[in-house]
Batch of 2 targets.
Target 1
Amino acid sequence: MRKILMVFGVITLFIGCNAPQKSEKASNEVSKTPETNPENFGIVIHGGAGTILRKNMTPEMEEAYKAKLEEAVRKGYEILAAGGSGLDAVEQSIQVMEESPLFNAGKGAVFTNEGKNELDASIMHGKTLNAGAVAGVTSVKSPIALARKVMENSEHVMFAGEGAETFAKEQGLEIVDPSYFYTENRWKSLERAKEREEVELDHDGQASLYDPFIKDSKFGTVGCVVLDKEGNLVAGTSTGGMTNKRWGRVGDAPIIGAGTYANNASCAVSSTGWGEFFIRGVIAHDIAAMMQYGGISLQEASQKVIQEKLPEMGGDGGIIAIDHNGNIAMEFNTAGMYRAAMNSKGELTLGIYKESE
Amino acid sequence: MRKILMVFGVITLFIGCNAPQKSEKASNEVSKTPETNPENFGIVIHGGAGTILRKNMTPEMEEAYKAKLEEAVRKGYEILAAGGSGLDAVEQSIQVMEESPLFNAGKGAVFTNEGKNELDASIMHGKTLNAGAVAGVTSVKSPIALARKVMENSEHVMFAGEGAETFAKEQGLEIVDPSYFYTENRWKSLERAKEREEVELDHDGQASLYDPFIKDSKFGTVGCVVLDKEGNLVAGTSTGGMTNKRWGRVGDAPIIGAGTYANNASCAVSSTGWGEFFIRGVIAHDIAAMMQYGGISLQEASQKVIQEKLPEMGGDGGIIAIDHNGNIAMEFNTAGMYRAAMNSKGELTLGIYKESE
């Protein structure tokens, strides 16, 4: 039986080698795969960051989140342990969360101002630097599967709107009626966001962004990063976007460099949080660049970006990341982030809140 | 009268201080404006990179391009010289090119597979790291103006499709009939691309991407980067996308970090070329990150990214960039790039081809 660690207070931890990986300053070898130990594989997932407080959570809800996070991380872990590809692990871990109404991705996605679910996703492979992304799809059951099809079966990286749906159909992906994504909770969030907006619009049009309840229901994303046994880093992210969003708003989840980035020369990153700040900060690529050009560790780079640079801009959220030695980071500046990780020894880490318990 | 230099063979040149700007390794001060000399302002523009060969160009066409490039760069220069904002300079320089049928942006944009013009643009300010981007608009006369409205008048960074059009109308921007963007040349490019595709699809679905004629007509973008007298770096990019594109393809022009990036701590960059590779390489942010974390000069970073990293991935294209000392780069790995620059002394540089003349 596997040893299971339930660590809630640890934000950043190491799996495998603890030594910070130093890379050449301004190295050219962007996607070169460093020497790896095939035993050093690992997986990290997140189910969104936000004002997640224990006092607002019932024991039943907490158990439900933990169980689903464990199911999702084990799904990817089993694929990696069997020598499967990082892409399969990322896609299938994320699909477990897309299919759960607990997370703002796939089923359970939040509603736009028009009462629709518009889904975004992206995926990137660290060896080839190939990537796929979709924005604003409304009838594709698994947006992360579509992002992978874009990467593997088109000469393009990103498709948006109806065009992305057409491509999904051509690729034979499962198409669902938009009602598949409906959940009562998310619908209520939209109603509450609209009411709040009506009340507050007079003095501050952006007020709802600063209301913890609305902000939590506005944001949220799922993501997965892995190091597979071949030494490849892969990252993926999937989201329902932002409650009450308008004007075809695109967040960071489908933006390569912001919501998702993977490069065998540095790390794989998936973001969650207030997407606008993640786009402006090019957060996922910034962490990789600080490692690669600045020669600092994944842990240091993640802390600097999430605890210093992001709040300096006024943004909040978190990231999960893994580097080519299997070091991982789960860094956030919000009250909580749904997260889980497993290392090559099969040790499981699960977390929701920031504070220790 | 201003001294005018017509330099065609110079790819990278310096304005103002020649000393490479060293920055602290892994500095946290992402957007801190370094000490600047108000005399050290400057502007660089591009009108697209591609297989631009002198043998394919008539003297009349060459003169037409040079005249329009000079008009565009002088437009921004006059704003900067008068102490105007970098945002105004970038927006208005780009608008000169958007309104010209010579460039693949605004009027003269290429056609999608469905025979439509779908326009993308983005803009970013290096002091605030604020940014705005739009993808797939079909009736907004100036996409760069819309990107600026998104940045300044919304809490978001990126809008796509119909939602972006709605926002444009709400903002009172000039709306035109989609036929405004029509030019006969671009329509012929679409027809030729479709014929070529039909012929070549049997042996290689991507063949048209490797045909110089089609590739040139497929890609192309306009962009502008400036350093204003307050020491602020601003970058903007506008494009008609890709001839014969399908599935709501989004290129790099509206992607912050890929097509456009500005940060007072490093540089402002606008990209042009095969967009998919610019997204995967997060090209604009990569140049800034190599400067900031790797401590190399703008020239070195631009060369490494465009002459080494981009071709290694299989991509081509170019960038224009300017740093906080007024050093500029106009780097491309294609046969040519339409480009122009002016420094604080009013010296003008114009270029089309790579080879000296």
Target 2
Amino acid sequence: MESALSILEEEMNPARSAPAAPLRDVVIQDEFWGRYTRLVRDKVLPYQWEALNDRVPGAEKSHAVENFRIAAGLSRGEFHGYVFQDSDLAKWLEAVAYRLTTDPDPCLEAVADEVIGIIAQAQQPDGYLNTYYTVAQPGQRWTDERRRHELYCAGHMMEAAVAYFEATGKRALLDVVRRFAEHIETVFGREPGKKHGYPGHQVIELALVKLFHITGEKRYLALAKYFIDERGRQPHFFDSEEHERGEEGHKGYFEGYVYAYTQSHKPVREQDKAVGHAVRAMYLCSGMADVAMETGDSSLADACRTLWHNVTQRQMYVTGGIGAQDYGEDFTFDYDLPNDTLYAETCASIGLVFFAHRMLQMEPKGEYADVMERALYNGVLSGISLDGARFFYVNPLEVWPQACAHRHDHRHVAPERQPWFGCACCPPNLARLIAAIGRYIYSQSETGVWVHLFVGSSLSTTLQGKPLRILQTTTYPREEGSTFTLALEGTADFTLALRIPGWCQQPSLAVNGSPMELEPILKEGYAYVHRLWSSGDRIELGLPMPVERLSAHPEVRADAGRVALQRGPVVYCLEETDHGRNLSGLALPRRSVLVANYESNLLGGTTVIEGEGLRTQDEDWGDHLYSSRESLERTVPLRAVPYALWGNRGPGELLVWVRERR
Amino acid sequence: MESALSILEEEMNPARSAPAAPLRDVVIQDEFWGRYTRLVRDKVLPYQWEALNDRVPGAEKSHAVENFRIAAGLSRGEFHGYVFQDSDLAKWLEAVAYRLTTDPDPCLEAVADEVIGIIAQAQQPDGYLNTYYTVAQPGQRWTDERRRHELYCAGHMMEAAVAYFEATGKRALLDVVRRFAEHIETVFGREPGKKHGYPGHQVIELALVKLFHITGEKRYLALAKYFIDERGRQPHFFDSEEHERGEEGHKGYFEGYVYAYTQSHKPVREQDKAVGHAVRAMYLCSGMADVAMETGDSSLADACRTLWHNVTQRQMYVTGGIGAQDYGEDFTFDYDLPNDTLYAETCASIGLVFFAHRMLQMEPKGEYADVMERALYNGVLSGISLDGARFFYVNPLEVWPQACAHRHDHRHVAPERQPWFGCACCPPNLARLIAAIGRYIYSQSETGVWVHLFVGSSLSTTLQGKPLRILQTTTYPREEGSTFTLALEGTADFTLALRIPGWCQQPSLAVNGSPMELEPILKEGYAYVHRLWSSGDRIELGLPMPVERLSAHPEVRADAGRVALQRGPVVYCLEETDHGRNLSGLALPRRSVLVANYESNLLGGTTVIEGEGLRTQDEDWGDHLYSSRESLERTVPLRAVPYALWGNRGPGELLVWVRERR
């Protein structure tokens, strides 16, 4: 890698303007997120450990731990599961590491250490680590990166190793992945004799940047950059692979489509629309942003901005869901956002959070935080049930359970959360995101601190060589704002940049009780409060949250004539359980007054939106299927609940975009 | 078949109340249908003959005639095409026969005679006739009725033979199919040693009834009845077949679904919802109705009524399209009628016309004729272009061409008519229906004549032993009504039953200039005018056709808040060519005045509907995808054209159900 490294040296011009505050510096104490972090700690991680060990009755078998035991020579048997089964364990370990960072638990750590020992034993003498190829297809390594996910599994294990090292200071798994990374370096690269290749499913790019960060070893960054730069070049790597396997022309289901599906249809800097598998696209974009920031590569940063723009302004659901079709779990085309036949995988919204978080560190703009918040409070959390034991893979915005049961083009849409999946990427992905929610709240530079999310928490850090603590108290998104109290030694001259959400029309700010004019200090979605701060200074940010009726861009055919309700960052929905069947028969008059009410006994305590709606009467239709008579309507109460909480009161219909009566 | 025959004898209680007037008695002279019958005569039949002989440049190869030549020993080569390729030639021959009935052409007849000679030579010594098995799989006959369409091809050849005999009096093809039917009798039946089976794709049932009609041989009716009675019995024939092939459990794509797909999930008399492949279902129902009428089987007639009710009052598009999904080309479930991902195959609407026409003969009720007319003027004719050279297989009610190009769940929806299909069932099916349109206009019994359709035509028949001629003059559906002039010898006491369409709110009737009160003579959709008629009597039927806004039943989710425009029997649509892109941005205010105007230069001369609509403005949206600002609208002219004519002015968007602004 010498040549790539030396190129890198020249390009190095770091551009991470607002690096995230590390997880260990943030303590969460929050009404809203506390529910989810406790759920991950008390339910999800223990449940998933049981699942990974095939001890959940009735759930699909994982075999992930057993695959490692077999590869390690500790057990006998056959590999079971997907070729990417290893990544489920890796994501669980990563989630465990975050949990241990914020909430130490020697028992859990001992369990993790033990399984890390098995992983280390499963590593091959040359550093290779992948239970599928080790157990099921020895000798076939690195022959099918397009489909076989070796680099993907490697990436997830690297992320786990970095997180576990940061949490515990233990090097065992870090050493494993470093040896693996060095093995991968011998296989892939521009140099003659190496494969001029890259993963079919991205994630190793961003993982290698993490590895670079924790170790300071530029070779990892160089390898990440290589994978990104090589992607989509001609002659095409996937064709070469196919040729070497003697399988030309056997692309099967994705015939003619394998390139866009994996975002390798052209070099990444030439890509201007998000295409293909949405999770892969988000992991790629995250890795691109990481490499751009670490190397100061402005063309790569521009490609990130272009793709960000396309995803969030053309191809994103109002819930932060992405991926408009089942086929390929794919992006489709601008403004194609059907509500019922979509994909909107939980993992894709998680990937969007990763991408947003990186862009936010590259350049702290409210548009990134707005999307990050939209995805977090809606399309991510919809993936998990209130009891933490059931999950959505696909997150629809409109559900007619009969269609899911009878229509082949809805067969991928489950009308209820499921206990576990054979392809179990989403549950551990949720766990690792929620367990690390503290990383997404604050950024910090030499000159100050940014607040991106309104989460009850404290940040304990050092600024300009002196300790600083920021205590954020809030009941957001239930109530309208956050209060920040500073603790520091003496005084300090720095900027506190508070996000003013895009959804908020009438924000207010007061420092130590004195209102401040916002206009002069607003820049790209943040209020930059710069002063000489003293301990005990108190900043009150008011974020009024009237109920908003959102319209979609007129090109979004699926939402024409409809509105979605949103209050603060929370998108609402109608459920059959509150309105009876046939939600399409409901309309919301524009003149209806909509009121938000907190209900402490509903869905663990949540704010509902209530108002008057109209329902088409079907009593007098009889057996007519079509009629020229004007159909009658009656006034009915409407009650919308947060989208993320739908489906927690039994199966039934769901509707986000409701017809508006002007 | 002796026992089945004797059972039949006992049951025989014919119940064809209003038999259709035969094609040879009807001469069409009609502004509307003339265009289509000329198209079939001058374009479609010659074009299809070229296609069947693989002489259309750029079109998919048919090979249908060549397959027969090979099977006849007149040519060497391999079978090419689908296992049901023979049926394309049969349907063409049937269409030719109808054309020769109404419009003799010695040249065309010579061509037909020649190909009939080839067919006769392809028949095997034992009467078997199927080029696929004869050429490609000798020895495998009758081993896979579920998938291999031998009885289906037989049925179509029988229909062709009956039609050709009726048209020309020539027996060659009739003799072929009689020998084939007698061979089939030796293979299938209740008797021990025979296969207790029936076709995977129905049509032979109704074809055998035609053969019975023309020959008077009850054994054909008995075989039709057997196929219908056997269907869906346990042990299941398709399982037995599979067992005999040693292929248990290899149902492939349709795993777990083969029974409903072929309407064999239970005995036909127990079926209460239309399921499975829509064309098969309609051919089955037509055969059931035929057998019920010929045998007086009231339980079978009831099953027909139940299925009719389900199809037309729960699962039919406003265009007369049926089959709501691509998978299985299937019915789905009640009120599931998506406009863009549907199937609505041209052949299925044709099948619905066949079913309706039989029910109408069983019991002359307006509901049957209303549906027959709806399908004919809309979902059938939409299948063919104005130049007769391009065809829709799938007939959508909403098209966004980008979605057809990019969404996998729209890949079956062509946004433009295609020149020919590898699976070419629809073009010859259209040809045989249009060529025989004269059969659908009149019914006749001992006591009178029914008029079902308003088509410029004359019926020359004999009633009560005396010649009677009814001349119908009309410009329907351009203008509002029909005039009937009688020619007879002396006077005659009979009933003229004129259909009062369900869509008509204010019909009027005058006999020899004197208005008649309709109420007292109205019964189930027909005005029964009974009197002593004289030659020259003139009946004027007025059918005012204001523009109607139709709503769908509130359970039809896809059409909630929308209306479809209809005038008379014609359903209208909006096209991109008249409104620019994004038809979903249009809304029709309820207060808008809608006016029908005939435009002689548009689409070969047609009536358009015009009025004021609203269009959402998207100029000021910029890059916003969602916004809480109220979106602005501007007034725009709307212009709707007949649905059947859409797509004749270049590709683009289509919309039938337009949002209504109340």
